[in-house]
């Protein structure tokens, strides 16, 4: 009577999982973006914020959580894409257009996702595992991430890549955030237009916020 | 001469069905699975019969020529389904529904069958609601009703303008439930090419797999045909492109009697023909006549735009001629009146071959929103087809062939004169007489499938000694060979005319001479024209392609070949019936004010035709219609 | 009154003899098409032309030609059922096209819909999804009086909106992932919204989704192409409802 196949191997379950992990990651990027905004305040504020985070009791818990979210989101995203390609089957297919067209961001999730994924790895290598400078504030030695950032954002190429990656993330979030609501079963004629707007606003805030940082550094701090 | 025993049970009308259900033989539950039944067709009648029989435990094999059972043409019925629930408290009853149906059919249907239909009508609504059919409801959460032609009570249940769809999807879901349980074996894209009769009893069918072209035999203990009507004989009709008369025609040629073939319903509200390219006609539901007013200009050849014609220069002819029923006069009557107006030169539109159905007044009275709620999808459909907005410009409508009341002769048990061959729904002749009332086809299809055949087939199976037969039996071999031979013959003609061209020619003859208004000279002309087209068909048809792939021209050709024979029988039947009744209007038999004049003295019977061999004249037998309860009266809607 | 005119077109039509053959496009000029014709009547016209020229006509499914049976399965210039919203191919009229236009005609594509011939595809996978649970388990004769359970007009209307699905498969064809979720969710929604169907809603959601996955349809990524392509305006709301139901069915099931 009951189908015994596991929830997360069903198509609805996979959607659900993408939605939940995506929602978690969205909250993470929002928090990350807001924290980084401290660089507009002062190098000290920025560095102390980083110091507090690194030395928090929960840091390993959060990092482990993030890794799990990232991995699940990526593994399921890739699996879904491969399954979906196979389900489509034919290569001569023309795509919908005109009144029946779909949004650019919804069609390109795997590509924007891939770029964001690559960016994340480079980002971790450059920052988390990058050059370790130190600076002392009131007798406390903290990592000088501000200096590392200034060095990296001196290169116009690095800034361009960073801005490009954040733009792709903006598109990824544009579809992803409102889509997560749908996957988790939230849709209602009264609220959905608002949710769709919320997704767009969220994506633009996060995207523009992240883009503003290298541009500010490149044009005003160097 | 056939002996047509209608097997109507004795006793008072109200108790016949109950008595009969008690008296007929039953198959015990454990034995039911030993019996197999073939059902051809998956419309309301076929799907409901398949599901109900499988639920009882019979092994059912169900066939459809479409890719899915859900596509059967019952799906296109728009307006509603009748039942004698009397929820609106307006005086309805089983007896009134029975009476209206008999009267609507112009007293050419069997009393006992029609009474049973009215009796089971309420259970149909219950069953459909239980299946999740989303009928229209009012704010109190209870079912809503509307009125339909030929009735003065509101007894029609509806689901927007898509009642047929919702009822069929209900029956389809019941069928698919059984398919999932393995009790029904479903054969889609199979066309029945012949009925197989062994020792006088129907024991199976021969089909063509429409994907691979394979000819297959299927054996069973009984065969049910629920294959719909033959309105497509006219080429243009409201039937689906694939609707055809081949299954019942094959059964006729195997000995089943064909009853009242000339009884054709011409529906008054269809979108008029726009050009030679027209492939079918689209119906606008009769329910529109609840709020739309039918009119033509008073002046002949008035070419002003409708909004420029003031009220006093409009002839609301249905309201004028039939003050008590007005725009809700029955279909046959309304169609004929439209034809008279067009014949008088007062038709409208570019071709002058249509009349107006105007919503101006009801939009004024009820508001546009209410009209949208009631008929939104119909208005949208009309606009898509005609590029005219019916909220602003009156609809243009004209009658079109819609339903065939005639069909294979069946007894009270819905069994034809071939033992084991049962016929349900539009394919049989039984309940609508010479004219069917709106919203009664859905009722009959589901009554036959859900509530009649599950009982009566048991009586047949329990009461017959059927020898074991398999597909290697010589009758099956012979039928298969015949089917293959006919396909080879069709493909080998290699002439110059397409199937559609020949079908159009047939359709024109049928419409001109066997259509809304018939006379002796015209019918005789049809009887020479149809064989001429048939001869041309067999000498000059061009069917491309091979037999062992999907070949839609070949499929069409087989059906048109049968229409070319069936059309002749329709004309022959129309010629013999010199009275006018219901949809059959003989110009020779009319009153002074052009109403149909029945001749009960000579024609109160069912004319059942028997095939006597290729090229031979068929023979007609009569089943006299006995009316115990009803007083034969002139049918007046004035 | 009539605004009909004649137009000439070039058609690029998908031709494929059977499931095993690799298909190709074939180009046909069609002349003197009345703008009052439906798209399928235009194909009829082309077929007559092909037969007279000694060729094999294009196979395509159609039946009611009133937009309700769901037989037509034509992708027109990349759009299942053509450019208009809430319009099946048979209801699409040639006045929607321009003189001289090239129109690409393909079948509804998906791995779960193998091509039978030309434009005709096998959509029996959709029937099997219904057979897995798209019904109320009520046998004939078991029903109580139709008015015994009042149903709010709102629920009844919502159920109707979902029940309007014609099972054509345009949602699958339009979806870049060939997902059948809109189709499946329409039936799950319809029956869950009515008290008669709600009784077995958990079992239905699980079984229908499982069958949909077995048929190798793709997974939904919420692009909304299905909703845009649907000739009957079935909305994504149904899909969200299915997601909720499936999840709650899974969470509360006693058997894993």
Per DSSP, the total helix count of chain B is 17
**Which pair of chains forms the biggest interface, and how many residues does each contribute?**
B-C, 87 and 80 residues
So, CATH architecture of the domain at 267-400 in chain B?
A: Alpha-Beta Complex
Main sheet strand line-up of chain B: 6-2-1-10-18
Look up the CATH topology of the domain at 267-400 in chain B: Flavocytochrome C3, Chain A, domain 1
CATH top-level class of the domain at 267-400 in chain B:
Alpha Beta
- Would you tell me the overall average pLDDT of chain B? 96
Q: Kindly state the percentage of residues in helix of chain B.
A: 25-40%
Fourth-level CATH superfamily of the domain at 267-400 in chain B? Succinate dehydrogenase/fumarate reductase flavoprotein, catalytic domain
The overall strand count of chain B is 20
Helix content of chain C: 25-40%
Strand arrangement within the widest β-sheet of chain C reads 2-1-5-3-4
Given the helix and strand composition of chain B, which structural class is it?
Answer: alpha+beta
Helix and strand topology:
The complex is a heterotrimer of chains A (about 220), B (about 650) and C (about 260).
Chain A: H1 11-36, H2 43-54, H3 59-88, H4 104-107, H5 109-128, E1 134-137, E2 140-143, H6 145-152, H7 156-183, H8 192-221
Antiparallel strand pairs in A: 1-2
Chain B: H1 16-23, H2 29-32, E1 36-40, H3 44-56, E2 59-63, E3 81-82, H4 94-104, H5 111-130, E4 145-146, E5 156-157, H6 163-181, E6 184-187, E7 190-198, E8 201-209, E9 215-219, E10 222-225, H7 246-253, E11 258-259, E12 264-270, E13 293-297, E14 314-315, H8 317-321, H9 331-343, E15 355-358, H10 360-366, H11 368-386, E16 395-404, E17 407-408, E18 421-423, H12 441-463, H13 474-493, H14 499-513, H15 520-540, H16 552-576, H17 600-603, E19 605-610, E20 619-624
Parallel strand pairs in B: 1-2, 1-10, 2-6, 10-18
Antiparallel strand pairs in B: 3-5, 4-5, 7-8, 8-9, 11-17, 11-19, 12-16, 13-14, 13-15, 15-16, 19-20
Helix pairs in contact in B: 3-6, 3-12, 4-5, 5-12, 10-11, 14-15, 14-16, 15-16
Chain C: E1 6-15, E2 24-34, H1 39-52, E3 74-76, E4 79-80, E5 102-107, E6 115-117, E7 120-121, H2 124-131, H3 153-163, H4 170-174, H5 181-193, H6 195-198, H7 201-214, H8 225-229, H9 237-252
Parallel strand pairs in C: 1-5
Antiparallel strand pairs in C: 1-2, 3-4, 3-5, 6-7
Helix pairs in contact in C: 2-7, 3-5, 5-7, 5-9, 7-9
